[in-house]
Amino acid sequence: MSIGRFLIIVATTYLGLLAVTFFIGRVIPIDPVLAIVGDRAPAYVVERTREELGLNLPYWQQFLLYVKGVFQGDFGRSVLTTNPVMEDIRRVFPATVELATLGTLIGALIGVPLGVLAAVKRGSVIDQIVRVIGLIGYSVPIFWLGLLALLVFYARLRWTAGPGRIDVVFEYTFTPITGFYLLDSVLRRDWAAFRDIFAHIVLPASLLGYFSLAYISRMTRSFMLNELSQEYIVAARAKGLSETRIIWAHALRNAAVPLVTVIALSYAGLLEGSVLTETVFAWPGLGLYITDSLQNADMNAVLGGTIVIGSVFIGINLFADLLYRTLDPRTRNA
């Protein structure tokens, strides 16, 4: 793929994202002006605010102003917090990244071995168990599983901390550096805070990790079955190589090329799909921020958060595509 074609694809995709979010902001029956000034404001105040926001202009001019603001990082001000939306996003997004990253690590570290085991033991009881685990991960609503996990592991067994990101005891004594609390607690050598932060994140991260595991294990099984049926595997067995070396050093090595792409897409999915998880666990990330903003008719914050998540998803998809083409020379001319 040429650089010019790649840039055209990126620009077209991103403009499509902006067009969709702009359209959503205009068709939703929520007047952004009334959300700012209130429904009891005088008519002249409403009209003046509408002119200041450019909402009295034709749609094509509004869209151009919208695109210009997005590229300048200006999503307007949040009605809920009165801060610039971009400032709010910088504050809450690290929590979402931290949660999704840990969830992806759990999903990959457990899902890949399970998928390999299911492929090697195809048709056995182990294979059926792994497939059932994946099926449950796809079928059970994440919010229901989150509530059940809180009831069992927090309310009954007391194995984990409750909702939130950090206990109130540390809220005013722990000062973050990067916004990633686990990393910050290590950098500050505050091990008491680290234990508390880990106790809060382990349950929602495990929940996201389980859903990531369901996808990764299924795809790993599929890739491994394809590799184990190849002629080079037959040749390796004929040479007398051990089954362990054939599976882990040869089959998994070749399956790792598309598997890297799967893990990257799973990570992108957790970044954009953690809204329900953050809501159930009161996790102060971008998903909860968007949910609270939507409930308070704060459309600047909703659209700003949507654009950020969409941008990250597009970026990770493009990165995964480039990585796949780099690792597999056969696809470079496709």
Q: What can you see in these coordinates?
A:
- The chain is mainly α and 334 residues long.
- It folds into 2 domains: 3-71, no CATH class; 91-331, Orthogonal Bundle (MetI-like fold), CATH 1.10.3720.10.
- 76% of the residues lie in helices and 0% in strands.
- It has 15 helices and no strands.
- The protein has helices at 3-27, 32-37, 43-53, 59-71, 85-120, 125-139, 142-156, 168-171, 181-187, 191-228, 231-238, 243-273, 275-280, 286-295, 299-327.
- Helix 5 packs antiparallel against helix 6 (125-139) and helix 5 (85-120) packs across helix 10.
- The chain is globular.
- Keywords: Cell membrane, Membrane, Transmembrane, Transmembrane helix, Transport.
- It holds the Pfam family BPD_transp_1.
Entry keywords:
mainly alpha; 334 residues; globular; 15 helices
Please provide a brief summary of the model.
It is found in: Cell membrane. The chain has 334 residues and is mainly α. The protein has 15 helices and no strands.
Q: Work out the radius of gyration.
A: 24 Å
Level-2 CATH architecture of the largest domain: Orthogonal Bundle
Specify the number of helices.
Answer: 15
Structural class designation = mainly alpha
Quaternary form: single chain
DSSP strand content: under 5%
CATH homologous group name of the largest domain:
MetI-like
Query: Distance N terminus to C terminus?
Result: 7 Å
Total strands: the figure is: 0
How much helix is in the residues?
A: over 70%
Broad CATH class of the largest domain: Mainly Alpha
The name of the CATH topology of the largest domain is MetI-like fold
Number of domains: 2
Taking the sheet with the most strands, its summary is:
none
Broad shape: globular
Compressed to H and E, one letter per element, the order equals: HHHHHHHHHHHHHHH
Family: Belongs to the binding-protein-dependent transport system permease family.
Membrane topology: Multi-pass membrane protein
Protein name: Binding-protein-dependent transport systems inner membrane component
GO molecular function: dipeptide transmembrane transporter activity
